[in-house]
Amino acid sequence: MELKGGPMLACRRGLALAAAGLTVVGGAFWGVYRLTDATQTSTAGEAVTLYDVRDARQVAGTADDVFAGEIVDRTGQRDIAGIFSDPYKVRVDRSFKGDLSGKTTVSYEQGAAPLTPGTSYVFATGRVPDRRTHAILLETSPTSFTSLTAPIGSTASGVMTAGRTVAEYWAWAVAHEVDVSSD
Prior knowledge:
Helices cover 28% and strands 27% of the residues. It is an alpha+beta fold. A five-stranded mixed beta barrel has the order 1-3-4-6-5. Helix 3 packs across helix 4 (166-175). It is globular. The protein starts with 5 loop residues before the first helix and ends in an 8-residue tail after the last helix.
């Protein structure tokens, strides 16, 4: 059966169809390349988070525990599900979410700026399956502070920061946490 317009029209249609197919396939490969190009878009252990790491309410809603504590010491290195981290002994000064007290171990992903012994931080953590260790949520950084009664400062993102102390801010964020896992 011959197509209307002859063999030349059939050849043009075939070439147009092939070009369209190559465009679709090429676009798909480019999209996959851009999403997986580790040298430009990701770091070891980087995760796609469902929460805005700049919003303390969303961080609090994702964390198992939110607490203030002082770094006692770095205790080596460990591998948690293929992500190398530095474990730190932390003396818990105040728990905003969860029931931590005393001393605990907090793992922090390697490659980030190391935590300084003697410095106090607010930690948002998830419990590691061993139930003894807490891992700092990926893509978040502990917030250092000099005193829980110090003003939160202008670096805090989100709403309701003006005039609040570090303790008031994190207590507020936990009380108004946002659950990003709901539909």
